[in-house]
Amino acid sequence: MTTVEERLLPSAEPVCLIDQYGVPHDNPPYELPARETLLDGYTQLIKGRRFNEQASALVRQGRLAVYPSSFGQEACQIAATMVLREGDWLFPTYRDSVSIMSRGVDPIETLTLLRGDWHSGYDPYEHKVAPQSTPLATQLPHAVGVAHAARLKGEDTVVMALVGDGGTSEGDFHEALNFAAVFQAPVVFFIQNNEYAISVPLAKQSAAPSLAHKGIGYGVPGERADGNDLAGLLAVLGRAVEKARNGEGPQLIEAHTYRVQAHTNADDATRYREDAEVAPWLDRDPIDRLVKYLSENGGLDDAVRQRAEENAVRIAAQLRDGLMPEPEVEPAELFAYLYAEQTQQLREQAAFLRDELSREEA
Amino acid sequence: MAHTKISMAQALNQALRDAMAADESVVMFGEDVGALGGVFRITDGLTAEFGEKRCFDTPLAEAGIVGMAVGMAMNGMRPVVEMQFDAFGYPAFEQIVSHVAKMRNRTRGRVQLPMVIRIPYGGGIGGVEHHSDSSESYFAHTPGLTVVTPATVEDAYGLLRKAIEFPDPVVFMEPKKLYWAKEEVDLGESVPEIGRAVVRREGADATLIAYGPAVPVALEAAQVAAAEGRQLTVVDLRSVVPFDDETVCAAVRRTGRAVVVAEASGFASVSSEIVARVTEKCFHSLAAPVRRVTAFDIPFPPPKLEKYQLPSVDRILDAVDDLQWEDS
């Protein structure tokens, strides 16, 4: 018999299978993912990093309205989708563009919200990715609903619900965990704890021993992982997804990572943190350690590196080409999607705008 | 105080600073209002000057922020809280509507809540989804709330000082797009009263009634109209609740024609309330139905489309043109 604590509390230390020097754990608590999986992960990390860099560059050039970068958190972003099957769902936040792209969503459609030509650019059903949520934690109860509906329909869908450390303070986070537990909904709540909610550090956000500990109050098992160790993340998230799929109910995973860059390009991180705090995290970069490990343990040959680099170059070019032109917007769309059947009032307002624009052109 | 050229953001900051210096019970809290000084820098430097007990960051939970302010106000403090953006204030809606607005009434006046809920609101800044809502109508519709919104740098200072001194809870709506425009002002020289509107411009032909971010647009329209030979009065409400029927109706009776200008969607809104009141009280002075220039009844558009949503000078002038100037 396991105790409640053993069943629900996370491990004493975040699970880390490959440390920051590229050294594998000598007595791993989880099985190390297969080499092919790690090589695939490496390729995606390189691509994700380039996505972050290119998107930030496009903000500086005025092609994106804003970009909340996940630079340094790419392992979390990639792992969240690598552990999913095609029929599973992803519920992302505004900082999870790399996750969305890695799920297969067109990169330009991924960035539509942040370019500012529509609120969400992709069809959520195509890749089973919910619209990015700007209000914090509000997507989590939706994730529970999608998961519960899947169970009612007899489907073995798992829902990956993303949230940040700040989001765990919102009421919706707690309501979602409670609902998921009561209904035994197959949701993996995945907290990317990057230590900051804009300017507020984790110490001012929560007094819990860890954010993964928050599960016990709801009867949800918690686990935590080094958020910069792709291998550990894949193992921990993979097991959580498996448990959720097998009818063991919701799971809560916390990844310990760090927001290397400012909240967005509009933020000035020098106002609330020292550079000295950031520096050690650069040494824990998720790419460096995987490269070291794979280089020494086989598999990462020049061909793989070159393929990854080509992918990265391709995604950067795709973003530049797709985002450099001013997007075409259609004012009539403003009225098109509010109701299944447009109201008389909206038809009148659409006609008003049409008339106004035609007079401007004349 | 000497005339200085400052922005609305700086004026609001100064108002908080002066209020905190004048009254120890004034405390400021919310998300990122400490070291960062707020995402719009309205609380810049307050923690450094007054310490973490007077201006502090909270966990990220709007219902918690407003709810805690209710308790602190019950226990002798004057909390000022910041909802980071209009739409991010919605998690606090239950606290505001069910508790902040009702405490005095449910306790037969025994418990007062002298608190201020500051809400940066409105569009015009290229914000992505959920960053540009005009949420004032929800609050104005709720009995028990006082709702004010400045349109000038001077009013921003004066109204915030008054709001903090006010015995009842005030929802203080700050028009984001006016945060950075600078004006030469003498802070504290003329302090507006909560509940009183002001005539910003006199003109005999028609009255534009506006508040918050719509006021500068209305003034610009009046200037263009004057060049075209039509003299417009512009009334700036300052307070949405209490509503200054006297000032508004006096202007409408003088001019016989009126257009309400608001950035919010028009349906079931503050602007519809203004039209109803003016029509009820000034019917026999009106030469034409009161017109409205508002946003469309759609969610606030993404940045690339927001220009179609915001009230414009042309839309105001078209509405004025439409006020049945000649008997047909």
Automatic annotation (TrEMBL), chain A:
It catalyses: N(6)-[(R)-lipoyl]-L-lysyl-[protein] + 3-methyl-2-oxobutanoate + H(+) = N(6)-[(R)-S(8)-2-methylpropanoyldihydrolipoyl]-L-lysyl-[protein] + CO2. PANTHER family: 2-OXOISOVALERATE DEHYDROGENASE SUBUNIT ALPHA, MITOCHONDRIAL. The keyword Cell inner membrane does not apply. The keyword Glycoprotein does not apply. Residues 49-312 form the Dehydrogenase E1 component domain. It comes from the Bacteria. Its cofactor is thiamine diphosphate. GO terms for biological process: branched-chain amino acid catabolic process. Gene3D superfamilies: 3.40.50.970. Signal peptide: none annotated. It comes from Kribbella jejuensis. This is 2-oxoisovalerate dehydrogenase subunit alpha. InterPro entries: Alpha-ketoacid_DH_E1_comp, DH_E1, THDP-binding. One of its GO terms (molecular function) is magnesium ion binding. Keywords: Oxidoreductase, Pyruvate, Thiamine pyrophosphate. Belongs to the BCKDHA family. CDD domains: TPP_E1_PDC_ADC_BCADC. The branched-chain alpha-keto dehydrogenase complex catalyzes the overall conversion of alpha-keto acids to acyl-CoA and CO(2). It contains multiple copies of three enzymatic components: branched-chain alpha-keto acid decarboxylase (E1), lipoamide acyltransferase (E2) and lipoamide dehydrogenase (E3). It is an enzyme of class 1 (oxidoreductase). Its EC number is 1.2.4.4.
Automatic annotation (TrEMBL), chain B:
PANTHER family: PYRUVATE DEHYDROGENASE E1 COMPONENT BETA SUBUNIT, PYRUVATE DEHYDROGENASE E1 COMPONENT SUBUNIT BETA. This is Pyruvate dehydrogenase E1 component beta subunit. Residues 6-181 form the Transketolase-like pyrimidine-binding domain. InterPro entries: THDP-binding, Transketo_C/PFOR_II, Transketolase-like_Pyr-bd, Transketolase_C. Coiled coil: none annotated. Gene3D superfamilies: 3.40.50.920, 3.40.50.970. Its cofactor is thiamine diphosphate. It comes from Kribbella jejuensis. Keywords: Oxidoreductase, Pyruvate, Thiamine pyrophosphate. It comes from the Bacteria. It holds the Pfam family Transket_pyr. GO terms for molecular function: magnesium ion binding; oxidoreductase activity.
